[in-house]
Each structure stands twice: as structure tokens, then as C-alpha cells.
Specification:
The radius of gyration is 18 Å and the shape is globular. The N terminus and C terminus are likely disordered. Strands 1-2-4-3-5-8-6-7 form an eight-stranded mixed beta sheet, with helices on both faces. Helices cover 42% and strands 13% of the residues. It is of the alpha/beta class. The protein binds zinc ion. Zinc ion (ZN) binds next to loops.
């Protein structure tokens, strides 16, 4: 019966027979992928926070198989703060499969290694992201996608992946502001429609890195650290696939350090508060959509 109901929900999701209810979870097959629809222009995906290790899916034999600890909890904390502040929900897409079974931030071949159950979950994960972004675009004209991860690099800073490597970010301003670099950026939508330059968005005083640092969370790229030290995560498959200017989707991969950020519930709450405070400024400023506290939202500014 439960399976039948879930099929109905998926059918409704695909066929638009039933309106998605913000804040109410939907699940893909076998509950491997969870989608919590939202009514904000913000989509948060968590590909590496899953803990489920079903025996029917063999362990992956290549690539990284270590999970990003507590990123699922971090995303839920962010969503909870947003709901308290705005009365609305971000879209959340959570992969419950452990990374040893599926890596949803890789192409399907590397992600699932040919296992049909893992492939199905991978397809659902990305279909949910597409649906969430399309809903946000329909409602607000743009979607801001955060692919949320956790790194264990030696420097405990937040790494902001705009699809530029540390080597790319070492280029001079002229190169980084060229059409080629902008076309390769996950922030392309903003650069093409707004006034700040690409380098301002990457590391200027109104960049996400600058805003996070002002809230007490070291981040790179930022005015303090415009050039990340290696190792640095540039952003992966999900951001490259979904952040398309012609689809009105922009965003980035956020790699959160563990110490003093996602290690304890208290620290996750502090970061969630800070990120929501930052997004409340960043989204109106750069995307023209607001997520104001405590009052009804207009659909767009
Ligand atoms: Zn990750």
C-alpha cells in the first residue's frame, strides 16, 4: 500500500496531477532519494550526506566512497532557519544512499557503476533538482542552486566552487572577466544580467565569500583569500549540469569545513543562521529576488 501511495506521488510529481506541497517530503523508489519541495528561489542538494547501505547495491569500486559527514543535517538546519525567518521552504534534494553505493555528484557511469538500482536513484536525484529549479524559475524567474558538501582539507575554510579551479582563479582580472571565463562560470546568469563584474562576484566585497567572512566563517575565494590554496574543490558534476544561464539557474558548490561548522549541532545552527543572513542580502542584491524575514513575499522584486 505504501509503495502504491509513493508511486502515486511520483506519478503526480511527473504528471503535475497534484501540486507539490512545500515542506512535505516525496521519495523516489526505495526511499533512496528525498525531495522536499519549496516555495523559495533556493534549491539545496545534498549528494554525499546519505548513510544507507542496502546490500542489494554492491559497493562502488572506484573513486571516493567517504561520505560528507553531517551535510544532510546541515541542510535541514538551513531549511529550518529559512522557514522560521520567512515562513517558506527552500527546495531540498537529499540522497540517502551512502557514497559507497552511489555518488550523485558524478556522471552516471562513475556514479552508479552500472547497478540498475543506483542508476535509478541517480536519475531521480537529478530529475528532482531539475523539477525544483523549474518550479523556482516559474515562481521567481530564477533558481539559486547550492550543492552542499563537506571537505576535510587541512585549511578549515568554506570552499566556494563556481566551476573555476584554483589555477583558473590565479588568472588576471582581464582573463577572469572575459567571455570565455564567464561562460564557464556557474554565476554566468548573474554576470549576464547584473552590474557587478565576474571578479567582483568571485572575490569582491559583495561576493558570497566576503559576506560569509563578515559573519565569521572563513571562505575562499573572498577578498581575504582571492586565490584558494590547494587542495580546493572547484565544483563538480551537479553544478556544471544544472547551473545554466539559458535555463535561469545559477549557484555554486559549497564545501563546508568540519571543525567549528558541521561538527556539532550547535555549530551547524550557527552556520545555518549565518548563511541565511547572507542569502537574505545576496539574493536580492544579485538575483533580484528577496527572502525577507517575517512578511509575505512578493513573487519577485
Ligand atoms: Zn561531497
Amino acid at each position: 500500500m505504501l509503495f502504491f501511495l509513493r508511486c502515486l506521488l511520483i506519478a503526480a510529481f511527473d504528471g503535475c496531477a497534484q501540486e507539490l506541497k512545500p515542506g512535505a517530503s516525496l521519495f523516489g523508489q526505495h526511499d533512496y532519494i528525498e525531495y522536499i519541495p519549496g516555495d523559495l528561489p533556493l534549491v539545496i542538494a545534498v549528494p554525499h550526506g546519505g548513510r544507507e547501505k542496502p546490500a542489494v547495491i554492491p559497493d562502488r569500486t572506484n573513486g571516493v566512497v567517504v561520505m560528507d559527514a553531517n551535510t544532510q543535517e546541515l541542510a535541514r538546519a538551513i531549511a529550518a532557519v529559512l522557514h522560521v525567518d520567512t515562513g517558506r521552504h527552500p527546495h531540498l534534494i537529499i540522497c540517502h544512499l551512502h557514497r559507497s553505493k552511489l555518488d550523485a555528484n558524478r556522471d552516471i557511469v562513475e556514479a552508479a557503476e552500472g547497478n540498475s538500482l543506483a542508476e535509478q536513484a541517480w536519475k531521480e536525484h537529478h530529475a528532482f533538482i531539475e523539477k525544483a529549479c523549474a518550479k523556482a524559475v516559474g515562481q521567481f524567474g530564477v533558481a539559486f542552486l547550492i550543492d552542499l558538501h563537506g571537505h576535510s582539507h587541512p585549511d578549515p575554510r568554506i570552499e566556494l566552487g563556481y566551476l573555476h579551479s584554483a589555477l583558473d582563479l590565479a588568472d588576471c582580472e582581464e582573463v577572469l572577466n572575459s567571455s570565455g571565463a564567464i561562460a564557464a562560470s556557474s554565476l554566468r546568469w548573474i554576470v549576464e544580467r547584473g552590474t557587478p563584474s565576474h571578479t567582483d562576484l568571485l572575490r569582491g566585497p559583495q561576493s558570497l565569500g566576503a559576506m560569509l567572512e563578515r559573519e565569521g566563517f572563513p571562505a575562499t575565494p573572498s577578498p581575504r583569500m582571492p586565490l584558494p590554496t590547494e587542495p580546493f574543490f572547484r565544483g563538480g558534476y551537479t553544478i556544471a549540469r544544472h547551473c545554466k544561464s539559458d535555463k535561469n539557474v545559477t549557484g555554486l558548490q559549497i564545501e563546508a569545513n568540519r571543525p567549528r561548522l558541521r561538527d556539532t549541532a550547535e555549530n551547524r545552527q550557527a552556520f545555518a543562521n549565518a548563511l541565511v543572513k547572507v542569502l537574505t542580502v545576496y539574493l536580492p542584491l544579485h538575483l533580484g529576488v528577496k527572502i525577507d524575514k517575517g512578511k509575505p513575499l512578493s513573487e519577485a522584486l
